[in-house]
């Protein structure tokens, strides 16, 4: 009995400690983002509370001088097009692989399977030359094409889901005279909604957070996405931690809101995405 | 239900064409179009797959035997020169030792994730809150995490202030020496990725039927026995997946060290070095050789893992 109580207390202590470790670095950055440059200079320490908790000057600076507005715009465009494209490509691939028997089917499946094992970071040296030869370098098309074209996980998610849709539904529609494309569009696609939701969440968060691809392929300043624009804060705001902190908070805030509202879907989505 | 529709529809078909002469070619046409339809759906996905995954791999393998600089039209065949350079110039190979820090960190990460997943699989107050807190870092933008922790490790930053509160005064430059910097960065990586492992483990533990625990409790099994004999076997597939992800992840670390230190003070990883070789020093040939080596290692690790733990989930074909 007492041993059980001690064990329970220790477990709660460990959870509280973990909570502190996760939240403290974030909380301090939030505090810093509300401080004035003068407060930063007088050396009151990182944990000191800001004089005016509603001081949003740094956010204005981050937004105006850090080009965060155009960064959010670029990210939104890439996000919508890439996620939309991924859904189309993934669902079409899954439909073709699961519902048809054709020659070289096993080869096609193997090609997709094998591609999932190749880590994207390793091949960028050569991918760069291909993207460049299409004239897509330094345009929004480079990340869009790469996000759409190299996503195997969504294909898995769709494939898993499409299998659970009874084939009799396809057959019924076919007997009513529907062609393969109509079956895909009118029967399969609408039933894929839960899988689409999963892909939107997993892919959306990955695209929003990606740094490597926009950093390599879009060096122009006006093509900055949130990752690369925030990264550029390092130069001009070098020692201005209050502005850098405001930028970081601006980037984290949308993620936090999405997480709070869609928690359940997010857990399920990442579980399905990772264990495929 | 399907059978009914079939029977209902079948008599309608022979009624439409005039005679048996016209009925004969119809199945053939259907089979033909059926042979083509899947390819219509696969044209775009396959084109993208070949262009952005397989063509780069093929090109990369070819570049790795040349001295190409990535821009000029001329390139010379150098045979295995790039590979010998990689293996003999020790500073090019040393970056692999940095992966060791991240490998050690992922071991810590898996153990911690396993602990928290087990703890939260029991009846705990504020469970959803703790679950959310532990998972949230995984969703945060990598650049934002980099800045949060640059401030954390800064002189007089978060860490120094917290230590000051505990009565420890230190002017240790956390990112100042290779050992300290790599340990700190690997720590950030644990902070960032622990949540994913944790949620995967928790999901696997919760998919174990509850009666098993009840039966074990009736038999008088302790928490440790429940962990050892119910939880561990239940999550073995996810555990092996996590191990393989951490090994290939440790070898291809890029974001955190690049954003935080730019690879300074001995924190350069293999991918940072490859990116620098290719895009700063225009050594596309050498960088390709490096990337091929990394790719082969990752594939080998995956292959070994598949041999050791046959994955029951790969049933695609």
Automatic annotation (TrEMBL), chain A:
It is found in: Cell membrane. Keywords: Cell membrane, Membrane, Transmembrane, Transmembrane helix, Transport. The chain crosses the membrane at residues 12-34, 71-95, 107-128, 140-159, 195-218, 238-262. The keyword Amino-acid biosynthesis does not apply. Residues 72-262 form the ABC transmembrane type-1 domain. It is a multi-pass membrane protein. Its main location: membrane. The keyword Ribosomal protein does not apply. Belongs to the binding-protein-dependent transport system permease family. This is Carbohydrate ABC transporter permease.
